[in-house]
């Protein structure tokens, strides 16, 4: 399923620039049928981590990070 979501994301016009705007994140989560509140949790989590992952590496593609976040929610 994750690859399907990623493929769909490539077909959309979401900017992958980091940091994203909160509205972009909300729109993407809405597209994935994930509640807006979860989009905010994702956004503020990474905002608080200065858009770095758990190992400290910079996030270069927020859509990929969002896909992983949603996959972890569902699994």
Question: How would you summarize what this structure contains?
Answer:
By secondary structure, this protein is mainly alpha-helical.
General description of the model:
The protein is 60% helix and 0% strand. By secondary structure, it is an all-alpha fold.
Helix proportion range: 55-70%
Give the beta-strand count: 0
Low-confidence stretches: none
Average the pLDDT over all residues and give the rounded result: 87
Q: Quote the distance from N terminus to C terminus.
A: 11 Å
**In what range is the share of β-strand residues?**
under 5%
Oligomer: single chain
Return Rg in Å.
Answer: 11 Å
The main sheet comes to:
none
Number of helices: 4
Going by helix content, strand content and strand pairing, the class is mainly alpha
User: What is the 3D shape?
Assistant: globular
The arrangement of helices and strands along the chain is HHHH
Q: What's the layout of helices and strands?
A:
Layout: H1 2-10, H2 22-31, H3 36-48, H4 62-74
Helix pairs in contact: 1-4, 2-3
Features:
75 residues; 60% helix; 0% strand; mainly alpha
């Amino acid at each position: 399923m994750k690859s399907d979501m990623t493929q769909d994301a490539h077909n959309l016009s979401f900017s992958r620039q980091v940091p994203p705007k909160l509205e972009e994140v909300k729109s993407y989560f809405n597209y994935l049928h994930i509640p807006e509140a979860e989009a905010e949790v994702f956004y503020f989590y990474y905002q608080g981590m200065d858009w770095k992952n758990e190992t400290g590496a910079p996030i270069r593609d927020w859509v990929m990070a969002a896909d992983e976040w949603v996959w972890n929610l569902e699994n």
